[in-house]
Request: fold
Amino acid sequence: MDIHKAGTSDIDQLIAMREAFLREEHPDLTPDQIIAQRAVLEDYFTRHLNRDFWGYFAIVDAEIAAAVYLVAAERPAHPRLATGKLGTVLNVYTKPVYRRRGYASALLKQMLADAQQLGISLVELQATQAGKAVYDTLGFTVKQSAYTPMEYRLRP
Reply:
């Protein structure tokens, strides 16, 4: 297995792995929704790749087996975020035929080393039940907060 950090020539693969992840997590997505997202994803990756977004691929026998994405944001510093830099892990996805071989773990370790080099203080993610054990092994902990997570959804 080789770890490959995505470059501009990999945008189609970033989109393909995002679509595979979304299809598995949201099986009710329609073909029209996927097509609409593809244009948005291409624009996003073109503008953000290797600026505040990084993509990692596990390559096995010249094929992408797994992917991990990191998005960085900067906020005002506070005690839990000393540098003000926050990383969010997205799209941890391994193609079914390659699962349970450690590819996602290897990508996450590389991503965490890079996040350290970028000065990111905290890396967060939303774990599925299938992925939680991997994150536990790597040292992620369940987030404890005195605050209640809330959201306000705006419609385009």
Notes: Residues 100 and 130 are 11 Å apart (CA to CA). The mean pLDDT is 96.
